TrEMBL record:
<protein>
    <submittedName>
        <fullName>LexA family transcriptional regulator</fullName>
    </submittedName>
</protein>
<feature type="domain" description="Ribbon-helix-helix protein CopG">
    <location>
        <begin position="51"/>
        <end position="88"/>
    </location>
</feature>
<dbReference type="Pfam" id="PF01402">
    <property type="entry name" value="RHH_1"/>
</dbReference>
<feature type="compositionally biased region" description="Basic and acidic residues">
    <location>
        <begin position="1"/>
        <end position="20"/>
    </location>
</feature>
<dbReference type="InterPro" id="IPR002145">
    <property type="entry name" value="CopG"/>
</dbReference>
<feature type="region of interest" description="Disordered">
    <location>
        <begin position="1"/>
        <end position="32"/>
    </location>
</feature>
<feature type="compositionally biased region" description="Basic residues">
    <location>
        <begin position="21"/>
        <end position="32"/>
    </location>
</feature>
Length: 90
């Protein structure tokens, strides 16, 4: 008898099956977990009043932004936000 990973009826038939690795602590597949986590992240951002902006830059600017954010011990998003605020306020 074959058992599917989403089969909820016959799981007790395979209870003695020893599987290598860490025990599964979440009933969802990794793909579903990632989707749920992304939805939660979007909701948290929305509650904080944050809006998403997609920005494409060349690799030289990208590396410079990464370097500056590491020097200031902030993430790249916070650095770009600070730079935009400074530009707008000037």
């Amino acid at each position: 008898m074959a058992k599917e990973s989403f089969d909820r009826i016959t799981h007790d038939l395979f209870a003695d099956e020893v599987r290598p690795g860490r025990p599964k602590s979440n009933p969802h597949s990794r793909k579903v977990q990632l989707k749920i986590n992304k939805q939660k992240q979007v909701l948290r951002d929305r509650q904080k009043g944050l809006k998403r902006i997609e920005l494409k830059v060349d690799s030289e600017l990208f590396n410079l932004l990464n370097q500056l954010s590491e020097e200031q011990n902030i993430n790249r998003s916070e650095l770009i936000t600070q730079l935009l605020h400074a530009q707008i306020n000037n």
